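User: Teach me something about this protein's shape.
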Amino acid sequence: MDSKPVVGMTVYLRPTIYNPLKTPPEGTLTKIGRKYYTVAALHWEYKFELDSLKMISDYSPDYTLYFSLQQMYQDIEHEELIKKLTRFFYDYPVAKSPLSLDKLREIARLAGIIPESTALPDMGIASAGPAGV
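Assistant: First, the predicted structure itself:
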């Protein structure tokens, strides 16, 4: 969120469960309280926690509040990429992975699994590589 939310601004509601709607519902921020935001949308008023932006509900919350469509779409893309990467690594057995060791190391560095300056472990292998190479 680039700017502070203000009463009267347009906000966007992202369904927390699968919803076939292509366009997310829009609402208007009607109140900023000490604990929550109040939003008028879909002929109803909803309350959202200030810190998590999750809907306050006695049951399962239906929406998450966003102040910009761009941030909402970035969060959706982030979740989709995580799902695809998880599926990718789950579906390939370790021995048959299409990724080279260098690519796997780079992914591990980007993910913070290994530090940037990780030396190769000493596994008793000669530095010249396997015999005959």
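Now, about its shape. The chain has two domains: 10-67, 75-110. The CA atoms of residues 123 and 129 lie 12 Å apart. If you'd like, I can walk through any region in more detail.
User: That's plenty for now, thanks!
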